[in-house]
Design brief:
7 helices, 44% helix, 2 domains, 280 residues, elongated, 31% strand
């Protein structure tokens, strides 16, 4: 499941947030350098403090700008738009801090709107890229006729399976909700029934998938109850907010030679669908 740390990692993998923060600190440094100190009780001390704070803010801005450059160049050629975004953030920061009385309220409104947009952006990332891992599969051995797997369900004991064919597939019943409900926090409901396998059979000049005869079913499947899933399946068109109710079987080839004891995660996406992804 995607947590806050994962979301922040996804956000700061882009140079844009780094450029915005860099621009904010550079604008704050320039605003501080132009502040007057003659009217202070101790002008000399105030002037010294002003330039010390200016150096600190500018240093932070430069470090953040370098971070934006490194992130940008790691993904290809530096983008001029990132520089423009950083300059825009610096100008807004300077105006907001230098002219607090005349421009403070409009700038504050802009910042609040920007924070709200960022919050919606983070929510959309969490909603449409989040996932729930329901099991893992480790390939013990595989050949042209059969495969041997270790199934590691999330909340139950591991199971050793010997299956017919070259491909394995989880059997997962899912209830997928509309995008609006997903954005508001709804996640795909699932019922993890078991595992099946497929083999490639030559028919004429082409190959076709044929399901094997060695299916495995959990005595107590994880997820929603069979009664609840059946209710949604029968009333799919009558329940508002439900996109589809279906059975997912995502095929994955078991190739022990490519990677000894390769492990794959079976994940259910927040916005629907079941995937088998290599586990790092």
């Amino acid at each position: 499941m995607m947590n806050v740390v994962t979301v922040l990692q996804a956000v700061f993998a882009s140079p844009v947030p780094w450029a915005v923060l860099a621009g904010f600190f550079v604008g704050a440094a320039v605003s501080r350098s132009l502040s007057r100190t003659a009217h202070r009780r101790n002008p000399q001390r105030a002037r010294t403090e002003k330039w010390i704070l200016f150096c600190v803010l500018l240093s932070i801005g430069v470090l953040l700008a370098l971070a934006a450059v490194f992130v940008s160049t790691s993904r290809g050629a530096p983008d001029v738009r990132v520089l423009s975004i950083g300059c825009g953030a610096a100008v807004l920061s300077f105006l907001a801090l230098k002219f607090r009385k005349s421009l403070g309220i409009p700038i504050l409104v802009i910042l609040v709107a920007a924070i709200a947009c960022l919050g919606l952006f983070l929510q959309s990332i969490r909603a449409f890229t989040g996932e729930t891992e329901i099991a893992a599969v480790r390939i013990i051995s595989a050949d042209a006729a059969s495969l041997r797997l270790e199934l590691l369900p999330k909340d139950s004991q591991p199971v050793l399976l010997t299956m017919e064919g070259q491909y394995f597939a989880p059997i997962v019943k899912v209830v997928i909700f509309d995008d609006l409900l997903t954005f508001l926090g709804a996640k795909t409901w699932y019922r993890f029934e078991g595992m099946t396998s497929f083999k490639l059979v030559k028919e004429g000049d082409s190959y076709r998938f044929r399901q094997g005869s060695t299916d495995f079913y959990f005595p107590r499947p994880a997820g929603i109850s069979e009664m609840l899933w059946s209710f949604f399946e029968k009333n799919e068109n009558r329940i508002p907010g439900v996109k589809t109710v279906q059975v997912e079987m995502d095929l994955k080839r078991a190739d022990a030679q490519a990677r000894e004891f390769a492990t794959y995660a079976i994940v259910v996406r927040n916005n629907g669908g079941v995937e088998i992804v290599p586990r790092s």
